[in-house]
């Protein structure tokens, strides 16, 4: 909360600085242009950029990919803009004692803000009472004006009161102190305020001042608004043909005889820097009209203030949605992470178990070549809380120990979240908290195999519906009825083989991913499901079966009969693998630390 408020104040400060620079650029133009620039700066305090970014995040140019890590690297330009506009983090990980101190500090800050708000509101309320008293004691007068006019005893300057039904309030006896031309010019000034609806806009800024009373720029903006609104009315009065000398004398006589209104939302005649106003009136310099270039500059600046935050929100939509989804994901209440001892024969994942509200991973590495590592499980197979059958998603970056060191995670959740949620988003949150894991996705051009069709066409056995039951992704597998069997979609080890029963060629490509030395992309364009069985010889293209590979110790001696290479085996089915370059999704580890044991 404090981080969001600090970011908003920072953005509003930058916005005010930009508005100030624009007013300098338009200093020789009409005052109403500068007035609206300052009023825009005032409104910015009510409209955080995060609101516009949130609006943009609901607009989507392309559907997000499913089945891979939910964290996506934002475009570098938009990321830089977010870092500039939001330099203060929303929250920081704190110890419990520090959290308690921060809570008390937040309460103290809130109390101080409330006192300031009450103080400003009280001052404004007292001013309202004075205006109300003046109205109660006033009497109607008949003057040539388009609004109701009243005269009130007292020393308040001429002014316009009211928002929806403005009333021109004149001090009693003013006609005795001003000549008719002077009074006519002063009344013309007040009617300008009515046409401009200055009381309404001044009231809006009063709310800004009361809410952000602690920010000095808010009060500075208020002074600039009063200055420019009075100059704007002066320019309009002179444009209506009033004599500059008569008008200036009328203002000076009002200032000598009467006091200014206690409220800035009561538009008077004596506001702003009097000396500069009189000089401007007497010289009656012709203000420059906006050139085409300046009109374009104003339009671009206004559109940029609205469009840029929305565009940043659009570009960062995947990140924002991921953060929102992460905030809604249940968390593990308690977790224990222990490094596994280096025992001979220790199997990865030994003891992996799931039960209601509990996840026990057994001994697993963060990253493993067969995509069963903790990171692959959390960010690929169950990335969005749903199971996905995917090929290998390469992981780049990170120290060597993420591949070799095993960890036993025992985590308990409140309630009974489903197994996919515990293995996906909840495990992501645990890894990010305990391992300080920071990870993003990016696409790279890498060497791949394109799975294509031979010139003579493919020779694949069509899948017979009902011959097997598609294997669900949930574990444990539900029991089958007598005579039923699950479709095989797997990599065989003894002998080395690929079974894709009831599978399409995309699933075959994902299986080939698991055994070949580079990724496989389905370029066949063939739809439908097939029964495919490939036995292949071990060679350099299947490095996981070679000595030193993670499947070598399970492969045994292979088949007793001669089998072709995997390339030849595919050619026998009318398919071929062509080396080429292609896009590949990567998970990139930006930061990771060994966890503490607790």
Please summarize what this structure is.
This protein is of the alpha+beta class and 598 residues long.
User: Helix content range of the residues, please?
Assistant: 40-55%
Mean pLDDT: 81
Specify the biggest β-sheet. 5 strands, mixed
Oligomeric state of the chains? single chain
The unreliable regions are 61-85, 91-97
How does the helix and strand content classify structurally? Answer: alpha+beta
Q: Give the strand order of the largest sheet, numbering strands 1, 2, ... along the chain.
A: 1-2-4-3-5
Distance between the termini: 29 Å
Q: How many beta strands in the DSSP annotation?
A: 17
Q: How many helices?
A: 20
Tally of domains: 4
Q: How large is the radius of gyration?
A: 37 Å
Tell me what portion of residues adopts beta-strand conformation: 15-25%
Task: Based on Cα principal axes, name the global outline.
Answer: elongated
Verbal overview:
The chain has helices at 2-25, 31-44, 49-57, 76-85, 96-136, 174-177, 180-196, 198-211, 216-239, 244-257, 274-283, 292-315, 317-328, 374-381, 401-404, 419-423, 425-434, 505-513, 552-555, 566-571; strands at 139-140, 148-152, 159-161, 167-171, 267-268, 332-339, 353-355, 358-364, 395-396, 407-413, 438-453, 461-462, 489-492, 497-503, 520-522, 530-535, 575-591. Helix 8 (198-211) runs antiparallel to helix 9 and helix 10 runs antiparallel to helix 11. Helix content is 44%, strand content 17%. The chain has 20 helices and 17 strands. The longest helix is centred in the first third of the chain and has 41 residues, at 96-136. A five-stranded mixed beta sheet has the order 1-2-4-3-5, with helices on both faces. Strands 6-10-8-7 form a four-stranded antiparallel beta sheet. Strands 9-17-11-15 form a four-stranded mixed beta sheet. The protein folds into four domains: 1-93 and 290-328, no CATH class; 114-283, no CATH class; 331-439, no CATH class; 458-573, no CATH class. Strand 13 (489-492) and strand 14 form a beta hairpin. The protein is an alpha+beta fold. The two termini are 29 Å apart. The model is unreliable at 61-85 and 91-97 (pLDDT under 50).
